[in-house]
Amino acid sequence: MKFPISLLAIALASLMAAPLQAKDKPKNVILLVVDGMGPVYTSAYRYFADDPATKQVESTVIDELVVGTASTYPDADRGVITDSAAAATALSSGIKSYNGAIGVDRNHKPVQTMLEMAKAKGKRTGIAVTSQIVHATPAAFIAHNDSRKNYNAIADAYFDERIDGKFKADVMLGGGWDYFIRPDRNLVEEFTTEGYQYIDDMAQLGQLQQDQPVLGLFAKVGLPWALDMQGQPRLKALTQAAVSQLENRKGYFLLVEASQVDWAGHANDIAAAMAEMADFVDTLEWLKEYVESRKDTLLVVTADHSTGGLSMGAGNEYLWRPDMIKSLEASPDSLALLAMEQAPGQRAELIASALGLSPSQAQSAAIAQAEDSQALSAAIKLMIDEATHTGWTTHGHSGVDVPVLATGVGAEQFAGFQDNTDIAKKLINMINR
Ligand SMILES: [Zn+2]
């Protein structure tokens, strides 16, 4: 007898809708957002990091963990290019909104976020980022505001808004003391009065008291470029400290953000971009090992959008040569500040030595005539773009799909193509069960 198709369909549908088995339910969820990391950044990083001594181009930890892609468009009638706020709201709540929205829907109504749901479930929650902690991505997981620009109001919300009387985030690590220590309000004092430990130096990360919430602010606004912090602790150190503070019997939700790949993209700065990618990869390697050494944690990594319209190859030449930026010890911004202290005639020499060029190769009208460090930085970046054959199409975002990486308990659910809101819905389903 043939099995009636309709019955088969119902049986299949009910199987698919059946609640996930406990083995698919992670106790701990870590979401790592790499702001601005379109797929070209992961390809570029592979060639940038490649060992020139071997003929083969070695794959990276990103390549090992990639399972799918995601579309990122904002609320339907707002076009196809998202900003970080709408994308972070989509990732935190599963709801699309307008560009600029922090944890609110298209009608400006607050939407519940996965961090808030985790807190309501009695889990610990945290954020570890390289931007200011009130920047769009982390803000859209903790606060609800009409505009990402309202940094002070967002900082206030971190203290004022509670879930069942509890603070929303147990661990907050990143930059931004400007928004917390203000003439009108000292939120650091308010948090410490309520039992938070406060640190403002990354060297103190190893001295944190366990089982006590923590606010750590390590810069006025965002952290300096990774390229200007070589040899110093950065995102990996923040992530390790956050994980060690968050581990507990009931589990945790942690948002990590490699915030500044996006900033490098906006600045059309390939040197800074690759250093931010390296900082992210350093963090990812540690997280992969951490998650895969246990049987109760899920790691999902994605980007909110791509930035800068980065292109490997430019000017019709079939070349991309990142060699020059491998040995850079300072960002073009810092290099420009340093060079501005020299007489105009001496600038080219300093820049040439930093880039491994002969002084005559670094002679250009733009460098000699730059009136301020910003103009000089732009001239240096242009010189690097020409030498590496790097192209950019915009100082804003682009609409390309982004990579999705996953490992650990339930990772298989993130395979294939999905929308950024689907990523959120899957994670929320896991957190809420
Ligand atoms: Zn951006």
UniProtKB/TrEMBL annotation:
Residues at the catalytic site: S84
Keyword Lipoprotein (UniProt): no
Stored InterPro entries: Alkaline_phosphatase, Alkaline_phosphatase_AS, Alkaline_phosphatase_core_sf
Cofactor(s) the protein needs: Zn(2+); Mg(2+)
Signal sequence bounds: 1-22
Co-factor binding comment: Binds 2 Zn(2+) ions. Binds 1 Mg(2+) ion.
UniProt key word Hydrolase: yes
Sample GO molecular function, one term: metal ion binding
PROSITE patterns (UniProt xref): ALKALINE_PHOSPHATASE
Gene3D superfamilies: 1.10.60.40, Alkaline Phosphatase, subunit A (3.40.720.10)
Residues involved in Zn(2+) binding: D35, D262, H266, D304, H305, H397
PANTHER family assigned to the protein according to its UniProt record, in alphabetical order: ALKALINE PHOSPHATASE
Entry's family note: Belongs to the alkaline phosphatase family.
Name by which UniProt lists this protein: Alkaline phosphatase
Species assigned in the record: Halioxenophilus aromaticivorans
